[in-house]
Every structure is written in C-alpha cells, then in structure tokens.
Amino acid sequence: MSKKVALILINYKDYADKYLAECWASLRCQDYAGPITTFIVDNETSDASYNSLKAIAPEAEIIRNKDNDGFAKGNNDALRLVSALGYEYAILFNMDTVVEANCVSELVRAAEVDTKVAAVQARLMLHPETELVNSLGNTTHFLGFGYCQGYREKFNDSNLAIKDIMYPSGAAVLFNLAALKKVGMFDERFWMYNEDQDLGWRLWLAGYSCILAPAAVVYHKYEFSKSISKYYYMDRNRTLAILKNYRLATLFLIFPAYVIMELGLIFFALKGGWFKEKKKAWSYFFRPSTWFYLMFERAKIKQFRKVKDYQLAGMFSGRIWYQEVGDWKLRLVNPFFAAYWWLVKQILRLFKI
C-alpha cells in the first residue's frame, strides 16, 4: 500500500459551503498508509469560494479555474497535474459524499489485484438512507442509456466479492493513471453526464477492466436533478458514446432500434417539456465539426482497441430502467428491445464483429 494516491474533488460556487466540511472530515480520517494528497478544482473560482475552500480544507491543493468548464474538464485538469507529478492512482470523489475510513485502502487493494484493472468504483450508498444502494456500478443499454445497478435496494453485506462493471460512477472511483495515458481521460465534449460511461467503455475496448469494490463504502447525498437542461446533455451524450465506441457494423445493426427509440423519445420529450432540448441535441449532429470530431475520436480508439464488440456485448443491457422515472411504458417496450439486442448479439458473435 505504498502507491502514490491523489484524491480529487470538484467545487462549483457554494458546493463547499454546503458539503465540504463533512466530506473533508471523512477524508482526513482515511487509514491509507501510503502517500496521499487531496486536490480540489475550484470551477468558476472567486475569492469567496477560494477562501471558503482554504478555511475548510487548509491542507488541500487548490486548482483555480476562471470558468466553469464542466465535470469532465475540471477533473481532467487535476488528472493531468497529478499524472505529471508522478501519482500512480487518482480517486475522484463528489463533494456531496461521506467516505468510510478504509475506503481509499480498499480501492487501492482492489486495483492491485490485477494489472488490467483500470477503474475501481466504491460501493455508493445513499445518504441519509445509508442502508440503501445508490450504485453498485453502472450499466449501459445498447442504445447508450446509462443507469445505476441496485438503486434503492438494500445491500446484502454477505456479498463483498469484487465484480466487473460496465463503467464506474464518477462520484467515487479510482483510476489507474497509466491506463488513462493509454486511452485518454474524460472526453471534455461531454461536459456533464455520460463522460464516465464513455471512459469506462474505452477502457474495456483497450483490454482493461472496470470493477466494483464493495468493501470500499461511500455515502452519497444524491438528488435526482429535475433541471430540463440535463436532458440535452443526457440525450446528446448517449448518442456520442455509441457513435464513438461501436464498430460501424454494430452501428448499422442497431440503427433500426435507434430510430424506434427516437420516435418514442419525441413523445416523452413533448410530455416532459424538453422537446426544445431534444431538437437541440439533433441539431448538434448536423454540424460538420461534430462529424470531424467523431472521425478523429474513432481513429484514436482504433489505435488502442483490443476488444471487439461481440466480446463486450454481454455487458450491455437490452432493458432500460431510469429508476427515478419509473414510467410504465418502459415495461412495455423493454421486452422488444431486449429481444432485439439478443438477436444483434447473435449476429455479432457469428461474424466476430
């Protein structure tokens, strides 16, 4: 347990005043025996926010960003710095978390199990409903939707085995910085939402693995965002993820299902009052700059890709369930999409796509 570890938190405006004191107290109690330093990225920094951070967390290294460049770039700014400083692992924590004293030790211990482990998510529990799960790792629907495993279920303490997950939540995750040098860091185009999904996907494609370490526990003061603007990023970014990471043949195979889903999303957007955001997401893909960016990203991924789509397809879901939405219509369409994805997987395996 001598690896050099950096802890990274993102602050934005009054987050520190609302959340940092309890989070910082839990980080100061970590039992990790190796070298460990905390870095706080202060997005859209001001003298007031900087002074608040220094008052609450005087030992932390603070990175001041003039603008709010989003979750992806904020973390990347810190990841680039700690990588240059020779840290071997970086652990991202949301500021609205409380971290068990052995969490960092357990994350590092899990990362050391295999050299192919690139990302280790902690077991995220809700706060204050600490007996309920927030995330046991995240799942990707084959059309790009991402969602938490085990949300609001009671955790079975008898099952503490490390397991593979499709992608880790950015709220509490360790990254092997050597792996990030291979596949890149968060895609800053995503701004927020799905950037952790995209990175986890790329890690798997490069031959690495993402795992859950259930013995590492973090309590998350999670609130489902009701902001309409989030739908633009969620809708746009899930399409970006599939266009970047699937092989062209796979994109061709899922295209009919994608069109059917888009038709359904029109009605969902009209009903939910976010059709304007839906149109904005569509318009994004009619820009030449978007397609140049996608071609460039696909070329980069091709250089390190070791895993074909059929080898990873079993980790994708044919069913979608947004736990905070719980719409009965999902129960009606899920059997269709599950059957469609089953058929696509058979074709992928048959032709080794």
Name the helix and strand elements from N-terminus to C-terminus, one letter apiece: EHEHEHEEHEEEEEEHHEHHHHHEH
Q: What's the multimeric state? A: single chain
Find the CATH topology of the largest domain.
Spore Coat Polysaccharide Biosynthesis Protein SpsA, Chain A
Helical proportion, percent range: 40-55%
Name of the CATH class of the largest domain: Alpha Beta
Structural shape? globular
Count of individual beta strands: 13
Radius of gyration: 20 Å
Q: Which short descriptors sum up this protein?
A:
ten-stranded mixed sheet; 13 strands; single chain; 46% helix; alpha/beta; 12 helices; three-stranded mixed sheet; Spore Coat Polysaccharide Biosynthesis Protein SpsA, Chain A; 353 residues
Could you walk me through the main structural features you see in this protein, from its secondary elements to its overall organization?
The mean pLDDT is 94. β2, α2 and β3 form a beta-alpha-beta unit. This protein is of the alpha/beta class. The protein has helices at residues 15-28, 47-56, 70-84, 103-111, 177-183, 195-205, 230-245, 248-272, 275-284, 288-304, 309-312, 328-351; strands spanning 5-12, 36-43, 61-64, 89-93, 97-99, 117-126, 133-135, 138-141, 146-148, 163-164, 172-176, 209-220, 316-317. It is 46% helix and 20% strand. It is built from twelve helices and 13 strands. Strands 1, 2, 3, 4, 5, 6, 7, 10, 11 and 12 form a ten-stranded mixed beta sheet that branches. The chain folds into two domains: 5-220, Spore Coat Polysaccharide Biosynthesis Protein SpsA, Chain A; 230-351, no CATH class. α1 runs parallel beside α2 and α8 (248-272) runs antiparallel to α9 (275-284).
